[in-house]
Fold this protein.
Amino acid sequence: MVEYQYRVLVFPSGVSAGDLSRAITQEAEYGHWELSRLLMYFGGARKVWLRRKIIRVERTVWQGVTAQ
């Protein structure tokens, strides 16, 4: 089962579509986030949900076992 980590960003109504797009692109490129959902409110404010996979690493060496 895939698990995701979420981040919610809120942009006020004065932010242009280009600035919003640049901000989301930067988060995607440098933070490895992807756009999950975008909600636009009546007044023009936008709420953006970003997500990225949680990678769990399993231990491959048993505790108590020593290398010889």
In short: The longest helix spans residues 17-31. Strands lie at 4-11, 34-40, 46-53. The mean pLDDT is 90.
